[in-house]
Automatic annotation (TrEMBL):
<dbReference type="GO" id="GO:0005524">
    <property type="term" value="F:ATP binding"/>
</dbReference>
<dbReference type="GO" id="GO:0016887">
    <property type="term" value="F:ATP hydrolysis activity"/>
</dbReference>
<keyword id="KW-0227">DNA damage</keyword>
<comment type="similarity">
    <text>Belongs to the RecD family.</text>
</comment>
<feature type="domain" description="UvrD-like helicase C-terminal">
    <location>
        <begin position="552"/>
        <end position="599"/>
    </location>
</feature>
<feature type="domain" description="RecBCD enzyme subunit RecD N-terminal">
    <location>
        <begin position="24"/>
        <end position="121"/>
    </location>
</feature>
<dbReference type="GO" id="GO:0043139">
    <property type="term" value="F:5'-3' DNA helicase activity"/>
</dbReference>
<keyword id="KW-0238">DNA-binding</keyword>
<keyword id="KW-0269">Exonuclease</keyword>
<keyword id="KW-0547">Nucleotide-binding</keyword>
<dbReference type="GO" id="GO:0000724">
    <property type="term" value="P:double-strand break repair via homologous recombination"/>
</dbReference>
<dbReference type="InterPro" id="IPR027417">
    <property type="entry name" value="P-loop_NTPase"/>
</dbReference>
<keyword id="KW-0413">Isomerase</keyword>
<dbReference type="GO" id="GO:0017116">
    <property type="term" value="F:single-stranded DNA helicase activity"/>
</dbReference>
<dbReference type="GO" id="GO:0008854">
    <property type="term" value="F:exodeoxyribonuclease V activity"/>
</dbReference>
<keyword id="KW-0347">Helicase</keyword>
<comment type="subunit">
    <text>Heterotrimer of RecB, RecC and RecD. All subunits contribute to DNA-binding.</text>
</comment>
Length: 631
């Protein structure tokens, strides 16, 4: 059934070819060894067995929880530059042959590989996906009773708005009676404002143990800040006898990381909370839900007590999680074209808000639980960053080009066709970072220095190479040294920003936390690394005690999720390799643009920018089907 270079493929020939592909960088050592081990374990080293194992493992390293056999290129299933390998069968025959492999079983069998419909999974991942789907479906269908005065409270929470349809109000009305609510929207669309009002409405009807989390420490700190700001605004804006100032004040504002909530035990990589020791809470709010991967969502749902409400907040258009799955995007998949409320739900919304919506679904899937906020209150409708983000998100290249042509002051383009572009980016970074370094020289407060540093960031599409994090960090370090702003002759020097790369629970430092090495007051020779924590306090850590870390003048777009900067400069490589190019898609560009509050600069080529906006990252996953099409 498998042919290699025009001849029937033997096991030995395929093993030799896998080795060759590994040496050529077409295949990782992990994928090859996984296949060889599985073959040995099942005493089956047939070419089909080896190939399926290699492909499923490679899918996982590319963040796809499964392999969709119907989408496999039979003429070049490995997708190598030269199509040496071919599957000589049509899709139904392939499906039958895969189902017959000893290592492959159906979901209720105890086999390492599971074939479910057209999808081949590692058993673990099929388990994650089916459990997540089952729990979300069950929660989605669970109605909860609402406060007798919900309509009046909604009226008080949303004094007549300017918008024809107030989607924030509809979101709160929708969520009021549901165990599961998903609120998505781009930056500044009012997700936090909406959820604060929702929490207020719910806590007015019963006393709830509310917990708030985000996937990273940085995102948790931002959530905390946003909720605080939102509470403050409500205190000033709301003026109704139905809502007391005390009720607003008593809303929680502390947020933690998901790992911390679940009680991650670093020693044994287990979590303290699970089905047999569930979390003690009545309502869980998860912000930046697009960053939550499939295994984590499974753990979270497993630890959630049966009665608890779950609210997921996020931006479905952002980059998906660093690990397998695209849970939020899959949850939102069925409502990409707009809301999908059933007749029951539109009637309920009308009863609570007076807004009449046309029902759009007979079998709504998760439609009745989804709320999408579209109007950005942060970016003026006609401002450049918002326009560019929207055009990129729509994948509309004419619109993207038109936005650039309008020459908005907020948007700058540095042509990346020659080395002048890179030099211009480094120059921009040098002048932006000189602000915090000057403040350090003037012995400003550490908090002020950190705030100034956080005004600007270079974001890179990738980690390696001249245009990646490593190269740009080196170039900026050299430029700042030449300008006399830093003295990087030693590893630890005053002014060096660092990003933490692993969690250290004893120090309270988490993967992605960013700090700066600063001289200790009164002793210029001693350095401490300063971090701003979620409560606004500054944490000081001896440089020698830092867990794994790297310099952070530039960081990847992936790592920037959950953060915002006044000004962002994005670096795209001028000549990406095909595999690099496949990683630079619409979500990456959109995420980078939406990290910027008032200025976005892009170093790149128009061809790459355009190609990237055309490419939507699809993750092979059965979750959307399970949530939207299955019973
Ligand atoms: N309905 C509204 N009318 C006017 N301003 C609003 C409205 N909703 C939110 N805002 C303002 O828009 C800004 C962003 O709101 P909010 O923080 O709730 O959005 P968000 O979607 O959570 O943003 P982020 O993407 O930063 O998390 C805030 O300054 C808020 O006051």
């Amino acid at each position: 059934m498998i042919e290699l270079s025009g001849k029937p493929c033997s096991s030995d020939a395929l093993k030799a070819q896998l080795k060759l592909w590994q040496s050529q960088g077409e295949l990782s050592a992990l994928d090859r060894h996984f296949a060889l081990q599985m073959a040995e374990l099942h005493s089956d080293d047939s070419p089909l067995m080896l190939l399926m194992c290699v492909l499923v493992s490679r899918q996982l390293s590319r963040q796809h929880p499964c392999l969709d056999l119907s989408a496999l290129m039979l003429g070049n299933p490995m997708g190598t530059r030269q199509a040496q390998l071919r599957i000589l069968a049509d899709y139904p025959a392939l499906l039958g042959a895969v189902a017959n492999l000893d290592a492959v079983g159906s979901p209720d069998e105890n086999k390492p590989l599971i074939l479910e419909g057209k999808r081949l999974y590692l058993k673990r991942y099929q388990g994650f996906e089916s459990r997540v789907a089952a729990r979300l479906n069950a929660m989605a269908g669970t109605e909860l009773s609402t406060h007798a005065h919900t309509a009046a409270l909604l009226e008080a929470l949303f004094p007549v708005g300017k918008e024809a349809i107030d989607w924030q109000k509809i979101a709160v009305a929708t969520a009021a009676g549901k165990q599961l609510t998903v609120i998505t929207g781009g930056p500044g669309t009012g997700k936090t404002t909406t959820v604060t009002k929702l929490l207020l409405l719910l806590s007015l009807s019963s006393s709830l143990n509310i917990r708030m989390v985000a996937p990273t420490g940085k995102a948790a700190a931002r959530l905390s800040e946003s909720i605080k700001a939102s509470k403050q605004r409500l205190t000033q804006e709301l003026n109704s006898p139905l809502i007391s100032q005390d009720a607003i004040a008593s809303l929680p504002e502390d947020a933690s990381t998901l790992h911390r909530l679940l009680g991650f035990q670093p020693g044994n990589h287990k979590f303290r909370h699970h089905r047999d020791n569930p979390l003690d809470l009545d309502l869980l709010l998860v912000d930046e839900a697009s960053m939550v991967d499939l295994p984590m969502m499974d753990r979270l749902l497993d630890a959630l007590p049966g009665h608890a409400r779950l609210i997921l907040l996020g931006d479905q258009d952002q980059l998906a999680s660093v690990e397998a799955g695209a849970v939020l995007a899959d949850i939102c998949e069925g409502a990409r074209q707009g809301y999908r409320y059933s007749a029951v739900q539109t009637a309920r919304i009308e009863g609570l808000t007076g807004t009449k919506l046309a029902p759009r679904a007979d079998a709504p899937g998760l439609g009745d639980n989804l709320c999408r906020l579209l109007h950005s209150h942060r970016f003026a409708e006609d401002a450049g960053i918002g326009q560019l983000a929207m055009a990129v998100n729509e994948g509309d290249k004419e619109k993207v080009a038109a936005v650039w042509q309008k020459n908005y002051a907020e948007l700058s383009w540095i042509p990346g066709d020659n080395s002048d572009g890179l030099a211009a980016l480094v120059q921009l970074a040098k002048s932006a970072y000189s602000e915090y370094l000057q403040a350090m020289k003037q012995q400003a407060e550490p908090k002020t220095i950190l705030q100034k540093y956080n005004e600007f960031r270079v974001l890179c599409a990738m980690k390696n190479g001249e245009y990646g994090v490593d190269g740009i960090n080196r170039a900026i370090t050299a430029a700042l040294a030449r300008a006399g702003l830093i003295e990087p002759s030693q590893e630890f020097y005053a002014g060096r920003p660092v990003m933490i790369q692993s969690n250290d629970y004893s120090l309270g430092l988490f993967n992605g936390d960013i700090g700066i090495l600063l001289p200790v007051e009164g002793d210029n020779q001693r350095l401490m690394t300063h971090f701003i924590q979620s409560d606004g306090q500054v944490l000081k850590v001896l440089p020698a005690r830092l867990p794994g870390h790297e310099t952070c003048y530039a960081m990847t777009v992936h790592k920037s999720q959950g953060s915002e900067f006044a000004s962002v400069a994005l670096s795209l490589p001028p000549q990406p390799t095909p595999s690099q190019q496949s990683l630079i898609g619409r979500e990456l560009i959109y995420t980078a643009i939406t990290r910027a509050k008032s200025k976005f600069t892009c170093l790149g080529t128009e061809a790459l920018f355009e190609a990237a906006t055309q490419r939507r990252t699809e993750r092979a996953s059965g979750l959307a089907d399970r949530l939207w099409h299955e019973d």
